[in-house]
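To assess whether the prediction recovers the assembly geometry, we first specified each molecular entity separately, as shown.
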Amino acid sequence: MFGRISATAFGGGTMSMIRREVVRSKKWISEDEYLELLSLGNLLPGSNPINIAVLIGSHLAGAAGACTAFFASVFPGFAILMVIGAIALDSHLPWVQGALSGCAAVAVGLTLANAWEMTVKRIDVIEIALIVAVAAAVLVLHFSLALTLAIFIPIALVATSRRPAKPPTP
Amino acid sequence: MIYGRLAIVFTILSLLGFGGGNAIIPQMHADVVDHYHWINSADFARFYGLGKLSPGATTTMAALVGFAVAGLVGAIVATLAVFVPSGLVVYGAGHIWGKLRGNPWRERIARAIKPVVLGLIWAGVFTLARGVVGGPVAIGMAVVATVLMLVTEWNQALMVLAAGAIGAVVLR
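The predicted structure of the complete assembly is given in tokenized form:
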């Protein structure tokens, strides 16, 4: 099942497809359980769609289920990327290079749009200040990822703890 | 040994990748472009584009870095190194997470991580943008993609695919 989702979920629709299959069609887990696993998968290190697959697999069938879900979600993307990569990277034809540059430009635009949408949802001044401080530390001061997390997560814990949780936006 | 180095770089990225794949982009760039010079900035942005185009996690772009450095074995090493360590952490944490239900720290940590991750994602956007080649035409395509993404519900992979087709004609 995860193999099929992974093979067909082009362009980041993976999470909503997982939810539709696991919760709505197959009824393997409840909506609440899904949200519970989702919040854990988002928090922990690692790619979100793969984390959620591992958690659902483990929830349903223990270690074997986690293993199956893991490989089923990693392998199709890997295989397809290898085929595209082997063709595209070996070639120095100008149109292939142009196509890759076009993909790169638009992918950056998509990520920028995602970042923008996630940021404007956070009207909290403290959170915006944290976002700017982290980005500046990484881009201007060249903080490593480890250093950034070690410094800013404690700061963020203090800065965000005194405020009541914002009500979920409708 | 090159496989060992690939494994170490991507294992560390895997374990520090809180909040999903996009947050590790600046560190991955610092490692594979600035430090080891395995690939250049332009290839980094192209691999990222291909990662968005292909199904599954964008982080699978690690496979392309491994492939560029050390062929198919390198691709397998990089992919396993970037996904297995975090997968094991998630598997282990799944067992204790349920017990923390209702613990106020759970919510606090989740809220603290979000702005930090978002800052890292912004840093990633600018890191990637440095590798976009093609001058004003490419910048124009990126801007159009940003706007389309904000105002439409179009599929991301189709947009990247269309960009590839346009790039093949106008960015050659």
